[in-house]
Amino acid sequence: MKHLLSLALLLSLFACANAQVTTDKGGKSDAINHKISEVDRLIKLMPLILTKSQLNDKILPAIEKNRETLKKELAWEDDQLEKIESLLDDAIKGAYEKGVYPPQKVIMTVADLSRKVGIQQQIVAGFMVDAMIDVLKATLNAGQMKAMLGSFDPRYIDPTAKPEAVTDDRKMRFYVQNVFLDPITYDILKKLAKTAM
Fold it and tell me: What is the pTM of this model?
């Protein structure tokens, strides 16, 4: 767990540093990376041969409902962060104006909030995945389910797993979370619905 937290901290610091350093082609690279993600999602979605009715009547409304759930979660997180802002402001002001080391209380408060938010995120993500799975099980035919479950290498879930050891339930949860609930998938599915039969 300590390594995971250290890695998360390192990645967040790297992201912050990258946010401050840009290149002339940074925007173009972002657009190309978005296209890479879009092609990856198309590779995973198109073999399902989703119908216009499946998309418009079931799948897109389910994703919209999940997006509303996520929006509520993010609003809750915003409120939680706002509650500690004055504590952070005081620590920053004290450090710059008085040379006072940020108090242990600040570190503990941030750590507690990180744990609280992390648990809440896991609960909400689980709820969203379960809701989407219910819709897909009621909407997709056997061939579409087979295409979905066979659409990726099980080692994406667990690099050490033998393909036959990864259950269909685990494959489906992974697929739903990483494809159907990926933020860019909604727009992709809306575009696919225009040409679907």
Answer: 0.78
